[in-house]
Amino acid sequence: MRPPPVPVRRAVLGPIWPAAAAALAALLLVVAALSALAWPVARRVQAMRLALLATVYLFVDVSLLAACTALWLRHPVAARREDERWQAAHASLLRWGLGVLRSTAAPLLGFRLRLEEPPGVAGLSDGPLLILARHAGPGDSFTLVELLLSRYQRRPRIVLKETLQWDPGLDVVLNRLSACFLPTRSAAGEDLPERLAGLARSLRGSDAMLIFPEGRNWTPRRYHRAIARLRRRTLRQAAADAVDNPNVLPPRPAGVLACLTARPDLDVVIIAHTGLDDLVTPALVWHALPLRDRPMTVRWWHEAAQTVPADPAEQYQWLRVQWAIVDSWIDARKAQSDLPAEAVRAATPASDSPGAPGGPGSPDQEGQDVDPLLGAPG
After folding, report:
1. Contact, 320 vs 132, CB < 8 A?
2. Both ends of the chain: CA-CA distance in Å?
3. pLDDT tens track for 15-26
4. pLDDT for position 124
5. pLDDT of 324-340, one tens digit each?
6. In the sheet that 267-274 helps form, which strands lie side by side, from edge to edge?
7. Pairwise CA distance, residues 37 & 151, whole Å
8. What value, to the nearest 5°, has the Cα angle with vertex 170 and ends 164 and 175?
9. Of 22, 133, 149, 212, which is least surrounded by CB within 10 A?
10. Does residue 117 contact residue 271 with C-beta atoms inside 8 Å?
11. How far apart are CA 146 and CA 338, in angstroms?
């Protein structure tokens, strides 16, 4: 469901959110306390872990909203959008909020991050960047944005779904950081690739534009539906690529190509990760807690601007190759994992398999997988 207009979000949702969040947090603390009574019998106590993390999330969200309000009162209206201090202050707020969530998830959920940087590389290259990241697993976007902010001191310009604007704190801080919120379905006359190209043209300094070319989190259901969709459109090579790369969704190229065309001077960073990607349902997350034996492993590599083709057709082939590399890296990491693939497949709901009701190719579900973010491969 699309969020309400900005005036409604600011004048209605914003003011009532602190009180609503406080009431919800009180309820969550009761759930956590009752769940804690089971600690001597069931050491995992998933309900307590999740309730406490949700309480911290609510605290962070309300804190972001309050801090953004204070910044709004302190800064002159005319200078806000272009003021470097205004941007830096909101980047610091987002860094703080995501850092709190990550540090809380470590003891509560057993979350661990394992970073694999290219050999001999101390950090990301200087200047603005276009970052293409794999999208899979719970909380991956939060983790990657926090990594960009904290480790690499980058100011993220994030491309994400507009449904996150229902969250009052994230809505305000991300909009002030020039995030690009895209609708689940393209509105009539709306040129989404041009919006992304415009954001790319605005990058400067330490800006990093973060795009998830797959458009949605990888799941077995979406993977099989993507193959079926490509085959119906007789995009045989794209469908064959998808079959060969089962760990990723086929990248949707329109938005990426628009950014590369608008800013051919941008270096590109590709981010792959694995570890939590098989947790594709709430039930799988619940049974996996705590996550101490399955860290989220992140690997990135850098492509200099001059190595990226200038022709759109060649850029699409380049993107396909990069995503094949992502898939191969995930395969290699999963081969080293102690988690057998058979166990993951056995835990995957039947609706995720081809031909199952509501699964790939199901007419009542097919339209929901169309994402206007990047367009169809081809």
Report:
1. no
2. 29
3. 999 999 999 999
4. 73
5. 999 999 999 988 875 44
6. 113-116, 296-303, 267-274, 129-133, 207-211, 155-161, 180-182
7. 39
8. 90
9. 22
10. no
11. 27
User: Which whole-number Å values give the CA distances from 169 to 87, 130, 166, 375, in the listed order?
Assistant: 16, 25, 9, 30
pLDDT of amino acid 293: 86
Tell me how far apart the alpha carbons of residues 144 and 109 are, in angstroms, rounded to a whole number: 18
How do residues 177-209 score in pLDDT, each as one tens digit?
A: 999 998 876 554 468 889 999 999 999 999 999
Tokens of 185: 């379905």
Question: Quick check: helix, strand or coil at residue 25?
Answer: helix
What tokens were used for 241?
């690529």
Q: Give the separation between CA 364 and CA 184, rounded to whole angstroms.
A: 16
Residues in Cβ contact with 91 at an 8 Å cutoff, skipping those fewer than 6 apart:
149, 155, 156, 177
The CA angle 126-128-133, to the nearest 5 degrees, is 105
Residue type, position 219, single letter: T
pLDDT digit string, tens, across residues 251-303: 999 999 999 999 999 999 999 999 999 999 999 999 999 998 889 999 999 99
Q: Note the pLDDT of residue 146.
A: 96
Distance CA 8, CA 20 (A): 16
DSSP assignment of 132-172 equals EE---STTHHHHHHHHHHHTS--EEEEEEEGGGGGSHHHHH
For residue 131, list its beta bridge partners.
210, 269
**Element housing 270 (H / E):** strand 267-274
- In this structure, are strands 267-274 and 296-303 parallel, antiparallel, or unpaired? antiparallel
